[in-house]
Amino acid sequence: MPDPFRTMRFMSSEEHLHSETSRPNAVHAERDSEELDRLRQLGGIVVHDLNNALFALLGRTQLLQRKAAGTEFARDVVAVQDTVRLLEALVSKLNIACQRDETADERSNLRAAVLLGLRAALGTLPESLQPVSRDRFNSWLHETLESLPRDAFVAGSIRQVSTAIAQIVSIHRARAAKPIMVSCSVRDDRGDVYFDFIAEDDGGPWEYGVDAPSLLHGNFELALLPLATARRATRDFGGTVALERSPRGLRSHLSFRVERGLHLEQSHGSHAQRSAACTTASPADSAPVKQRRVLVADDDATLRALLIAALESVGDEVDVIANPAVLDAQPNLESYDVVILDAGGGGLQALARLRGGGSRLPVLVASGDMVEGSFDECTRVLMKPIMLDRLDRELTQLASRRPR
């Protein structure tokens, strides 16, 4: 029997790190993407301010036109109005180029959003600025997530929350000399539950203001652009971002409301949606939903905890193993409906052995690097981080392909 994995090759993190071609290209692509995103945010703020300014200017010229007595003066006012309308057309084109990504109504797991945000914001900090040593970073991240309830959801996308956290930290990164102080917590405010992200540095006096930059208010400092970006990212779900001067230097505070006990919501009748429906319908009107058994094989303790929280929130029964390389040696493996497998740490090799033995167990391969090769219909490969609004759909589709 030919080996279906003979053409498959997993490019490890080490290979990427030492590659003379792919790594620099990947770094440049990432920087280009960041610069493009920053330019779009800058353009969006400029467009907003210019629209307001042009609206006010046009209104004033119309008032002047009504008061104009002389024919020559009236012609001058019309000329100004024509100039304003030309500027309006140019601003409209700029607005198209800087259009914000519109996010459909979405609810995301709080832990997933915070995990992605903290990794993006803190994982690339020099060790001198990290809140803990590089050796303790993963354990600190795990402890931080454990302090957040597993059933907490935000009425926005993971990307929006992650963007806000990363933008806030970038302000402190540019000025801090010692480790940045970071905290995450959930508080109850008279029945409403809020998530708070606070960061503080010791960079000394903050020379700029604490309000988002605006052309109209004369405080358009580029150093404050991340603040405007963070506010823009979270405003759709009522998030607030504030800066304040502190005795040590500068303190930032991101806050938004979260909801408890919600399920992952999908728009296409997924397992999550059916599970949520069963919690609201009366027993007489709803048929029982079969509980899905999921095995998570990943050596990252934080990711295991996150997946447990997400999957249990939709009613799944979840087991975990910390060593992906021994997946094929697990007892009662075929009793699971689907497996989430880390591609690294020997996970792909274990999968090859599993398939070589004839197993058709559905497997979702999660990889942080490129995975080359072809896979059978019972295997799916997704790049990390996997957005949790997509995870349930992928697992449901995979489980449905299993031969009965």
Describe the SSE topology:
Blueprint: E1 9-10, H1 13-18, H2 22-67, H3 71-97, E2 108-109, H4 110-122, H5 137-146, E3 152-154, H6 158-173, E4 181-189, E5 192-201, H7 225-234, E6 240-245, E7 250-260, H8 271-280, E8 293-297, H9 301-312, E9 317-321, E10 338-342, H10 347-356, E11 363-367, E12 371-372, E13 379-383, H11 388-400
Parallel strand pairs: 8-9, 8-10, 10-11, 11-13
Antiparallel strand pairs: 1-12, 2-3, 3-7, 4-5, 5-7, 6-7
3D structure, described in words:
There is one protein chain. With 404 residues, this protein is of the alpha/beta class. It folds into three domains: 26-97; 108-260, 2-Layer Sandwich (Heat Shock Protein 90); 266-400, Response regulator (Rossmann fold, 3-Layer(aba) Sandwich), CATH 3.40.50.2300. It is built from eleven helices and 13 strands. It has helices spanning 13-18, 22-67, 71-97, 110-122, 137-146, 158-173, 225-234, 271-280, 301-312, 347-356, 388-400, and strands at 9-10, 108-109, 152-154, 181-189, 192-201, 240-245, 250-260, 293-297, 317-321, 338-342, 363-367, 371-372, 379-383. The strands form three sheets. Strands 2, 3, 4, 5, 6 and 7 form a six-stranded antiparallel sheet that branches. It has a five-stranded parallel sheet with strand order 9-8-10-11-13, with helices on both faces. Strands 1-12 form a two-stranded antiparallel ribbon. Strand 4 (181-189) and strand 5 form a beta hairpin. Helix 2 (22-67) runs antiparallel to helix 3 (71-97).
